[in-house]
Structures are given as C-alpha cells and as structure tokens.
Here is the input.
Amino acid sequence: MEHGHQHGHSIERELECVSQVPIFQSLAEEQLLSVAQVTRPIHAVRGGAVFNAGEVSQTLYIVNTGQVRLYHLSAEGKEQVLRVLNPGDFVGEIALFTDEIHGSYAEATMTTELCTISRESLTNLISRMPPLSMHLLGALADRLKAAERQATLMAIPDALPRLAGYLQVLSHDQSGVVDLPMSKQDLAAYLGMTPESLSRKLHQLVSDGVIETIGRRQIKVLAVNDLAALAPQ
Amino acid sequence: MEHGHQHGHSIERELECVSQVPIFQSLAEEQLLSVAQVTRPIHAVRGGAVFNAGEVSQTLYIVNTGQVRLYHLSAEGKEQVLRVLNPGDFVGEIALFTDEIHGSYAEATMTTELCTISRESLTNLISRMPPLSMHLLGALADRLKAAERQATLMAIPDALPRLAGYLQVLSHDQSGVVDLPMSKQDLAAYLGMTPESLSRKLHQLVSDGVIETIGRRQIKVLAVNDLAALAPQ
DNA sequence: CGTTCTCTTGAATATGCTCAAAGATGGTGG
DNA sequence: CCACCATCTTTGAGCATATTCAAGAGAACG
Here is the structure.
C-alpha cells in the first residue's frame, strides 16, 4: 500500500514533468509542488502500451517527453489513428467526469516519459486552485475546436482538400517546414484515405510546386496561398 | 448604458432559461439567481441568425427552447452542418478562452429562446462557484468525445458504416425510435455525403430490415445488432 | 550487409458524386 | 378548407475518384 512519495526520493522528476505542462505553467512554485506531489511518473519504451482499449480509467495522462499514439482498432484489424500526443499534450480527461472505459489504445512511438494524476487528486487540485480549472477549460476548448475542424475536414469527399487542410493547420504552427507527427500510413488512416491515395496526392502537390518533401517525415510548404486555395473555407 | 436587469421587470424568464440548462442544474436556488442575473435572453425566429461567421464573440449561448443549427459555408457555397443545438446545449465556449472570431453560422430552425452569458460574467461565476467549473469541464469533455467519434466516423470512406455509426449513437439515447435532429439534406452534409447517397443508403437499410422510416424525421431501429455490425468498432 | 518495414507506382474495379427530373410534404394564401 | 407553391426527398443514368490488389523501390534496423 504505497500512499505517497515520501520514500526519501526527491520529487524532482515529477516536478520537471509537471512544470513542462502548459496547463500548470502559470502556477506558483508552491502550487507546482502540490501538483507534483500527487503525480505519478510513467516510463514507456517504443511500441510499449500506456493503456489499452477496454480498460477502465480514472487517470489523466500527460506527456512529458517523447510521443504517444492514440488509435482505434477497426473490426478488420486496421488501425485508425485518433490523435498523436506530443510533449505537453494530455489524454484521459473524459474519464475524469464519466466512469468510462478507454475507447482507444495508447502506444508510445518512442521512449516516452509521462506523468499521471488520478481523478481524485485532480478534482482536489481544481478545488484548491481555481485558475487551474480555467486552464483545463481552455485546453479542452482548444481540443474541441481542433476535433470539430477535423470532423468537418473529413466530411469532404475529395482527398486533396482534406490533405491540404491538414497541411495548412500544421504549417500554421511551424514556419515553412512541417514535421509530420506520424508515419505516412498512419497519416493516411487519420485523413480517411489509403496510403496509396496519400502518396499520390502528395506527389501531385510536389508536381504542382506547392510542397517539397524533405526526407520521410518532413514537408516544406512552398506556396501557402496555393495550399489555402485547395483547402476548404 | 444598461448595466443590469433591475428595471423593475422580474428575471423570471432568465431564471427559467438558466434552470433548464444541465450545467447549472445542480446549483442551489440562490446561486441560480446569481446566474440568472448576469444572463441576457435572446429570441430568434425560424431562419433567423443567432450569430454569423466572422463575428467576434465573447459570449456563451445556451439554447432554452427551440433549435439552433451551426454550419460552415464552403467555398462553393455549400452548407456543412457542424452541429445542432437542442434545449440545454450550448455554444461559444471556445470564444471564452481564446479571443477568436466565430468559425460558423448559427441559425434558428424554429422559434427559439436562448440565454447568453458574457465571458466576463462567466469567469466571475466560475470563480465564485467552483462546482460550476466541474460541470463545464464535464460538458466539454462529453462534446469532445462526441466530436472525436464523429471525426473517426467521417474518416471511413464507405457511406454505409458512417450512417450506421451515426444511427447507432442516436439509438443509444432513445429507445428504438430515433428522432432525426435535422433535415435529410443537412444530415447528409453532416455525414459527409450527398442527399442522394443518404437516401439510397437509408433505402438499403430499410430493404435489409434493419430500420423502418416513420414519417420524415423519425427512424425506428429494428435490428440493433445488424446496425452495430455495419458500424465500425 | 541483409532483412524487414515503409513507401511508391501501376492497372482494374467499385463506390459515391454529378446532373437531371419526378414524387412527397408542408406551409400559405385565396 | 382546399389548392397551390416552394422545398425537401427520392430515383435514374453516366462519370469521376478513390479503393483494391499486386508488385517493386527505398529506408531503417539489427
């Protein structure tokens, strides 16, 4: 029965993880410590499972370093990528409010450090630190916006505008050179097309001078305007 | 400069609206009054605009009675339905945290009563009533879950599983008989297909004995198992 | 350096879209 | 109250697009 982290080892690691996370960023040093104290670190190797679909969860998972891939498994055994978690991103917020089983698998794509907070601890933290709830609400609102954009993007029957819309969002964050957050076959599933179609559409964009491929996981956007013209809205 | 609602008229209407809303439901009578006091009612007729895309918003809109349709307008002028707000549903939460313009149009599909709360008032309320933030978080988490499910559903290239998945979600809530929340042509846009395809796929489900149509806006699910078999997961 | 996985390329097929028109439905005004 | 009109929905046929199936090229990994 381990109830805390007062086993002599410092909570340095927990503190580092917590302080990296945007939703905790504006907290005072003292409050960060409170958060760190209820945090449990998790280590996952490449290909390792963070959690599996069907498992009951009452935990918030926050990625510190590395990357986690969330995906569904279709009836035919195909993987449908839901989302990719990069440092600062989190998952499990739904389980914090409704007693539910995980709808997806979570797998580390590289060596990954996460920190976890139990539902009980988080609700405690929120009641003690009101600003925290505002940050959480903001983060959820952002995710919601992204998810709704994704849903409307997917409703487009043609593959090219879907791809263009996706690249457009990515290129907003970074300037020019876009790092693809997943493999091409995962990206294809994410965009609702086959790897073959993705390959062809990418090739088309390259031929048209809109983009340039750098290696296997980078794309350089040459003509932002053309991309916007192809994307919806 | 109207600063409040103490103009002698009762806040009965505001109170009624507020008390209908799930996120406020568990509040005490006294707290409900506080909420009602910062609420402004809005009336919209069929076809009337609640707000338009491009407008700046710092307001939360909550539907009391009636229905509001949220939609995008594509470059070709086609309407892409994002979501339909029924009594108790709300929109505008994103604008509460990030200064942003509306990404969609909001139009009443019938005579509709809404109540609105400004960003300033809501943040005030939250700081004064901590449980409120938990309810908001819960509501956002639910919406997020629905949006992510929608996004993965849309990523399926075949129309039939998309439709089946959608009907499956609806039939979970109600038992057997499903009320369609929008017209067939809107539903088609929402599901990422043409009205023609939707009509054909519905006909196919009827032929297969999976569903039965009741009038224009109701569907009776006869074989839940068959529906689940057609839907993904 | 070879093995394995990912990605690309090529053809045939199938599915949904577009265009066109007819059939329902519901609301409105005479 | 009924007929008319606008709108929504359905049905049909040809066409465009993406998928499927198959095989080859290219990276990444041990």
Summary: The longest helix of chain B spans residues 130-154. Chain B has a mean pLDDT of 86. Chain B has two domains: 7-147, 156-230.
